[in-house]
TrEMBL record:
<feature type="domain" description="HTH cro/C1-type">
    <location>
        <begin position="10"/>
        <end position="64"/>
    </location>
</feature>
<protein>
    <submittedName>
        <fullName>Helix-turn-helix transcriptional regulator</fullName>
    </submittedName>
</protein>
<dbReference type="InterPro" id="IPR001387">
    <property type="entry name" value="Cro/C1-type_HTH"/>
</dbReference>
<dbReference type="Pfam" id="PF01381">
    <property type="entry name" value="HTH_3"/>
</dbReference>
<dbReference type="InterPro" id="IPR010982">
    <property type="entry name" value="Lambda_DNA-bd_dom_sf"/>
</dbReference>
Length: 180
């Protein structure tokens, strides 16, 4: 992910969390001007700070919410996983999906998967607002993903279906299913 894409994602996540640049700067141990430069893409964020920011800005799911939906995803025979649509935190994954990943599910649950996104996924993510995805105007989207070449959570080129679902607390979730 280049500095501009990373900056856009940082700004989006910060605004979704409802915190000011100055507060994020305090949490990350930098000045507000650094946050501003990162969000504009005029300065690189760096991998360590990027991962720290993702962890700070993602919303933690509660264990009891949407237990039935999570159980259905986990027991599915398809390559599918469920994430929080806004924070990209992993909520559940099927065994066939877990078999693709080189990390234990417990290490990934509750963590943002955005760090593993391929360029194709990031580009599709950027276009969701223009399509009305976040307002519920679009309930599903099929896209082709390229490889991300990540050793922990590899993504192979494939056709995937994103489906928007409403979680029990009113937040949007996203079912991600490999269909080809």
């Amino acid at each position: 992910m280049n500095a501009i894409e990373q900056g856009r994602a940082l700004r989006r996540l910060r605004l979704l969390k409802g915190i000011k640049q100055s507060h994020l700067a305090e949490l990350l141990g930098v000045d507000q001007a650094s946050i501003s430069r990162w969000e504009r893409g005029s300065a690189p964020l760096g991998q360590e700070r990027w991962l720290a920011a993702l962890d700070l800005l993602a919303v933690s799911p509660t264990p009891a919410e949407d237990a039935a939906l999570k159980r259905l995803v986990a027991s599915s025979g398809a390559k599918v996983h469920l994430i929080c649509d806004r924070s990209h935190r992993l909520l559940a994954a099927s065994l066939p999906r877990q078999a693709e990943w080189h990390a234990d599910l417990t290490e990934l649950l509750g963590r943002s998967l955005l760090r593993y996104a391929s360029d194709d996924i990031l580009a599709a993510e950027e276009g969701l607002a223009a399509r009305g995805w976040h307002e519920g105007c679009l309930s599903s989207l099929t896209l082709e993903t390229g490889a991300n070449h990540d050793p922990v959570l590899p993504i192979e080129p494939s056709l995937v279906l994103w489906e928007r679902v409403t979680l029990a607390d009113g937040r949007a979730g996203r079912l991600v299913t490999t269909i080809g």
